[in-house]
Structure formats: structure tokens, C-alpha cells
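User: I'm curious whether this sequence folds into something compact or stays loose and floppy. Could you predict its structure so I can see for myself?
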Amino acid sequence: MRVVVADDVMLTREGIVRLLREAGIEVVAEASDAAGLLHHVRLAHPDVALVDIRMPPTHTDEGLVAAKAVRDEHPDIGVLLLSQYVEPSYALRLIEEQPERVGYLLKERVFDIATVVDALHRIVDGETVIDPTIVSRLLRRRRRVDPLSELTEREREVLGLIAEGMSNRAIASRLFVTERTVEAHVTQIFMKLGLPESTDQHRRVLAVLAFLRA
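Assistant: Here's the prediction. I'll summarize afterward.
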């Protein structure tokens, strides 16, 4: 897997790069700002761009804007956003337009490199990966109109774990049930959310998108 890393803080960027390389990920370029990110993506055409949301000059959403530009120009390149803050609206802005091959993790997750590597692989496979902290906050949020109202508590729990990027096997292990049971829950989730089988749409991604919009 080939990755471009963009973070304006040199020590943080170098730390991420070192951890990725130790995990066997090929880091093909590093960038300290949005312009550098786009330049390296165009030259190297990586599998994934790992991008800090807050970058120069204003340190608000330059990284997010650059990530969107990457997806617009190169829809086959995945994007993994990193943020110090829980900002689900930022993730939703990118995911709503191009839900596949997008991830959003809190920056603290980089210290658990296995989590980052797993997220990168899932993004390359066309999935959406959302940080568990954000998933938990969204699950607790009160909703006036809840498109997930038809789901049982267990189905909501399964959908939350899908949003974290977990496979059916991983969900089964987390919930201490069989993989077949998880498959049954997932089937019910797709049916209740009105997500028919399709060859050109990733239903797990669409389910996550419905979850984020709720």
C-alpha cells in the first residue's frame, strides 16, 4: 500500500511516517500544507492520502478542502482524515458526496498503529471508517426525526460497529455471537434502511452514511 502523509506539525508528521513504515506501509511522500498534498498526490498517485483536517494558513478546514480536491480529481484514491477534535460534521461533508474510500479518525489513534493500518486497508477496499468516539457520540444524540427508528437496539449496535469499519467476524467477536447472527442483523439493517442489493453500490458504506445523517 502506498500512502501520502499531510500534517503541518513536523514532529507529528515524522512520527506518523515512522510508525507506518514500521508497519510495512510505503510512505511515498510527505506534505506540510494543502498545496503540497495535492502536488504529491498528482505526482505519486498513492492508494490513500492521510490528511490532518486543520492545516495552514488558518488551521480550520484546509485539510478537509484538500481531501475533497483529492477525491474530486482522483476518485480511486482513498482519504483518511485525522482530527484532534470530535467533529462529525467535517466527516459528513466529505462522506456525503463520495462515501466510499473515506475514513475519519481522531489523531490520538495514530499511537495505535494497528487501528490506523486496519483503517487504511478498509479504505482501499472501498469502505467507510469512522472513529469509535464519534460513533458513540452519534448513538447518544437525540434525534427529532430518526431514520433508524425501525432498527432494534442490537441492530443499532451492529450498525455502529459497521460505522467503525468492523467486519462481520470482528463484530461477532465483539458481541460474543456467531458470524451468522451478525449476518442476519446486517441483512435486517439493509432491508429496514431500504438498501437493495446492487453491483455498483457498497451497501455497508450507504448504511454508514444513513447512520451519520440521522
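Summary: The longest helix spans residues 179-192. The two ends are 33 Å apart (CA to CA).
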